[in-house]
Amino acid sequence: MRLGDNCVICNKRKEEGLHIANSFICFTCENKIVELDENDLMYHTLVKQMRNLSSNFIRK
Ligand SMILES: [Zn+2]
C-alpha cells in the first residue's frame, strides 16, 4: 500500500481515503459528498465525477 495519494476532487495529497479504480478520493471529500444536498450544484459535479470513475472501474 502506498502512503497517501492525490485526491481527484481537491487535488491534495492525503493519507486517508477511498481508492476507486486508479483514482483516489480523500476522506474529507468523501464526507463532503455524503453531507451534500441533492439540490446542491457541487453534488452533481461530484456525482458526475464518481460516474466517470465507476465507468473506468467497469472497463477494468
Ligand atoms: Zn479530497
From TrEMBL:
InterPro entries reported for this sequence: Sigma-G_inhibitor_Gin
Pfam families (alphabetical): Gin
Name of the protein described by the UniProt record: Sigma factor G inhibitor Gin
Taxonomic source organism: Halalkalibacter kiskunsagensis
